[in-house]
Amino acid sequence: MRPTVNNVRRHFMLYGLWLFLLAVLIGRLLLLMVWQPVVGGGHIGTVRWRMDEEHFHVRMTDDGRGHILFADGAIWSPPSTLQAGRVQQAPAAIGPELVGTIGQPDVWPSGARVLPEAGRTGLEYALDTLLMSKRPNLVGDLRVAANGGALDKAKLPVTKQPYTIRAERGSDVITTIDETDERRAEAVLQRVKVAHGAIVSLELPSAKVRVLASANHRRSDALVAATPGSIFKIMTAAAALDTHAYPEQARFFCDGQVHWPHVRMHCWRAHGKISFVDAIAQSCDVTFAQIGIHLGRRPLEAEAKRFGLFTSGIENFKGHALLPGANSGVLYRQRGADAGLLANTAIGQEDVRMSPLQGALMAATIAEHGQYRKASLIDGVQKGRHRETYVPQFPSAACDAFTADVISQGMWAAVHAPKGTAHALNALPIAAKTGTAELPNGNVNAWLIGYQVNEKDEPVRAFALCVENEAGWAAHKKLFEMAQAWFGNLPHVTAP
């Protein structure tokens, strides 16, 4: 009986399936012979080569993990090594709380990893799936007797056949951080002897983070929300103008205290008759307390949302939430709308919390005519010769351009008008807003946020400087010393 076409096809299919299963089985056996992590004693043991150790001598020369890089391509993340089955890594020289650490993965052995290491904190953790190795770099030699028989050094000569298995590296991630400026900012914080504080610098208009320096390397002070004090008056002013509750020409009167039932608040000085712009420049508590009471909760909450206060302020990258320890801002933790709560919140006390990064973003939004962008921390990803450059998201409108212009005038006057609260820095080409947040322990947070301009009067960098939880006189002294050290090498630019 002659075989039919269908029978022939069936035989070929069965034969092919048999060959495929045989190949899979042989492949698994070879894999088990060559590479197997050994688990013992409750922790990861050393990586062991299970082929005949008499013939094979292998060592790993590179774990293949990608690097975190500075904006100029210099390596930021320190190298890691595998010693006695445990990942060893020294902290980064600068910004170790940002780079993060590498350690044992939660699950090991793991089909998704070739080595027992994983990002545990910071960018190493957030970008672990991009950075992790697909195969390490291995070098070794196969020792073979001259006649192909068993090794016996006393009887037969031995030849060595060297070989290398090239790494399949993870991707390198290029950050926006400027190594020189980051190092200089940390040096300034150390020189002024700040225990808790930060220097943040954002490039404009892109909002790329160039500096994210913290005095505390256990957890970044630049990303931790704190009471902002009078820098929050920028938000109150924006809400007042955007809602048309107050015109730019509005005039106020301050005799040193707020005259409102059940509200006890004193201004830091009696300003007398004062304009909207001068109220910003001279940081009049009475003016902004009255505005806050008049506006109520909703307009200020809506304005704060448009300014990104209720997020960390850091843009995600390829679906990765960067620096998960970064705080969102807080506004109106308490319920109710009594006048005292509204007045205190309007001047940045009571329920308000924001991080130095969010303060720099608020200043960047004013500098960019009311256009808000989240901070961009990643410039791109590089693998071999291929580089993928990241394009920041489009901005969104946080406030009207006219509103931003009025507030800009107040911030410039704060530095360059004789009665401005930052007039001590008048030689610098900056527009700024100061802030003093009173804390329950009697200490204060001292703030300075704003933006720098170039010789064409164009905003080029937004910034936030902060000294946290120190005695009032010491906090402000250190803040202005920081500002002079940080901006002191900038050329003088005439007022716009």
UniProtKB/TrEMBL annotation:
Which organism is this protein's natural source? Alicyclobacillus fodiniaquatilis
Give the residue spans that cross the bilayer. 12-35
Know the name of this protein?
A: Penicillin-binding transpeptidase domain-containing protein
Q: Which Pfam families match?
A: Transpeptidase
Q: Does the keyword Membrane apply?
A: yes
Q: State whether keyword Nucleotide-binding applies.
A: no
Keyword terms, alphabetized: Membrane, Transmembrane, Transmembrane helix
Please report the stretch or stretches of sequence annotated as the Penicillin-binding protein transpeptidase domain: 226-475
Q: Which InterPro entries does this entry report, sorted A to Z?
A: Beta-lactam/transpept, Beta-lactam/transpept-like, PCN-bd_Tpept
The protein's matches in Gene3D superfamilies, at most eight in alphabetical order, are given as: DD-peptidase/beta-lactamase superfamily (3.40.710.10)
